[in-house]
Design brief:
The protein is α+β, with helices and mostly antiparallel strands. 41% of the residues lie in helices and 26% in strands. The strands form two sheets. A six-stranded antiparallel β-sheet has the order 4-3-2-1-5-8. Helix 3 runs antiparallel to helix 4. 15% of the residues are buried.
Length: 172
């Protein structure tokens, strides 16, 4: 009998805990979720009913249920908050992130460039003297790749790369 009472008590505690968790994770209205999206903030979003592709814009004005945005190209327009399917906020440019991307692009480009210099042709004269044209070895290709990574990192650090933070759109 005591065991049955203990089980009922555990079920009751579990149900209360589950209810508290559900209350804590209740979906907030979309306007409360995007509290950081205020005039002057740079955003990147998708809103299929309003724009066809991903758009980057600056928030010009915020109402209760709409944002007026100024895109990089074109005229300002209004987007209802419930039209957003994705929303990201710019956190500024990062030189470190730019250097990483630049290093990858530079290394890739110069690795291909180094491989393109590989010439496997052999020329032989009538006197049976054959000469090989210079073929870059693995060390040469690695040197090109390293030089490309270094130059790409420098250029990427100078330019920088914008960092984006995704805004959760609960209830989608």
């Amino acid at each position: 009998m005591q065991h049955l009472e203990w089980e009922n008590e555990m079920r009751r505690i579990f149900a209360i805990g589950l209810g508290l968790v559900a209350l804590g994770t209740a979906a907030l209205p979309l306007s409360a979720q995007i509290a950081e999206v205020n005039p002057g903030v740079r955003i990147r979003f998708r809103a299929p009913p309003i724009v066809v592709s991903r758009t980057t814009a600056t928030v010009l004005e915020r109402q209760n249920d709409t944002l007026r945005v100024g895109p990089e190209k074109g005229s300002p327009f209004t987007v209802p908050l419930n039209a957003f399917t994705t929303l990201e906020i710019s956190r500024g440019k990062s030189r470190a992130s730019g250097a990483k991307v630049g290093a990858l692009w530079g290394a890739g480009f110069y690795a291909i460039f180094g491989l393109a210099l590989t010439d496997r042709s052999v020329s032989c004269s009538a006197s049976t003297t054959c000469t090989k044209t210079r073929n870059p070895n693995v060390g040469d290709v690695l040197a090109y790749t390293a030089a490309g990574a270094a130059s790409g990192a420098i250029i990427g650090a100078l330019i920088g790369r914008e960092k984006w933070e995704r805004v959760p759109l609960v209830g989608r």
